[in-house]
Amino acid sequence: HSQAQSLITFITLSGTESNKRLSHCHSLAVSRYSFDNDLLSTEQRISYEEDGFLLIKGLVSGEDIDRFRAAFERICRREVQVPGLVVMRDVSIAKSEFVPDQKAISKLQDFQEEPELFRYCGLPQILNYVECFTGPNIMAMHTMLINKPPDTGNKTSRHPMHQDLHYFPFRPADRIVCSWTAMEKVNRQNGCLVVLPGSHHGTLKEHDYPEWEGGVNKMYHGVRDHDPNHPRVHLEMEKGDTVFFHPLLIHGSGMNQTQGFRKAISCHYASADCYYIDVRGTTQENIGQEVKEIAARKYAVDDVTFEDTWAVRGRLVQGDRTNL
Ligand SMILES: O=C(O)CCC(=O)C(=O)O
Prior knowledge:
Blueprint: H1 2-13, H2 19-28, H3 42-51, E1 53-56, H4 62-76, E2 86-89, H5 91-94, E3 105-109, H6 115-118, H7 124-134, E4 138-148, E5 159-162, E6 170-171, E7 176-182, E8 193-195, E9 207-208, E10 222-223, E11 233-235, E12 242-245, E13 251-253, E14 262-271, E15 275-276, H8 285-299, H9 306-311, E16 315-318
Antiparallel strand pairs: 1-12, 2-3, 3-4, 4-14, 4-16, 5-13, 6-15, 7-12, 7-14, 8-11, 8-13, 9-10
Bound molecules: 2-oxoglutaric acid.
């Protein structure tokens, strides 16, 4: 019944749009990528269907962002110990003796045990959007605070073009979504996100470390081949603006050519109804192996599976933990 209702809504609303959009609406009447609810406008739903991302301006308050920043700084100053937290350093800065330690930190991952940062993952205004893509049972699977450093001249501050699904041994892909919130103004100068609109319609591609002369950061795999002529969109954003994107969307970010650290906070959500897959024999085998080796060293155990590394990090943020 609700699908029939949405078909009617689509046809009614699309009367004012171009013929191209209209014919597309017919084929998308039963939408693949999002659920029908009161939050997303028809335009927003169509845009996510077609482009694979949706940018919402001013979604997170300046006050919240300032609190996340303060929590990040406490971690940098080593005032708190956070179980499970992964602190990453930029390859070229980590080797330099001349940069004070906190500035070498390029990324925090897995902050699910840090209450202040993890508050981001449960913000109601974020979850309302997430639910449009995952449905009501929501797991926060992967958390990051990215502190893109000023480039040292080696271009290591770039993030190669990639699809996030490469890192995830769970499916279906359409029930996974990333939220990425700018913690300050991000633009082409400080290395905003770059996306290839519509690339989420494709399949998961092979990923590996790119062959960059100046070095590549740990785990920064890139898509082996993507069409260099595919149109690109640079997502310039203000503090608090949030982009939601599909895990097959090809994206990356440019060099930070400023002297400031470009900060963003991000969470990958999945429907708790998703299921784990075995990545052996797939294009994800290389990352699965790398993650397992890191986890085995970190937890000093040798029989940890790629799937286990996700199941222990995932946290329920809404509804029931049905499966993941
Ligand atoms: O924030 C960025 O620069 C890109 C982050 C990203 O795409 C990732 O870590 O997967």
